[in-house]
Write a structure and sequence with these properties.
With about 150 residues, the protein is an all-alpha fold. It has one domain (about 25-145). It contains six helices and no strands. The two termini are about 25 Å apart.
Length: about 150
Amino acid sequence: MLFGKKKDKVHFNPGNRDDGSHEQEIDKDYVEEEVNKIEEDDVEVVLNNEENIDKKFSGNNTLSKYVELGRIMISMLKDVKNGNYKNIPWFTIATIVMALLYVLNPMDIVPDFIPGLGYIDDVAVLTMGVGWIESDLHRYLDWRMENDMGI
């Protein structure tokens, strides 16, 4: 196994986290199901499309924080793949890959070519995924700072 993790089906329970944000618009059961379908080959697809993912949000200043999130997540995947960072569950890897594959897909729930609306679902899926793995992202960033490695 490339990532050295056993792929177990994970059931995510968001608890009572209904903050009224737009992430509630995307069906969490659908996203959870998609996360559980992620395979190691999907990780390679994301890593091979790093530039395309970066370009997706780069042209829009209001989405700049999502460009940074995408870069951090891809950096995490690379460090895991290279064996530099090992403290990460498969669910986190799969969530990152699912979210970035969704962003990469131009024909998702709301097609990206629709002006003003095309990225709403991409941002919602990315935000939901980040919410699920936020503590792992913080641990990773702390690790990067401790090891004095730039992103």
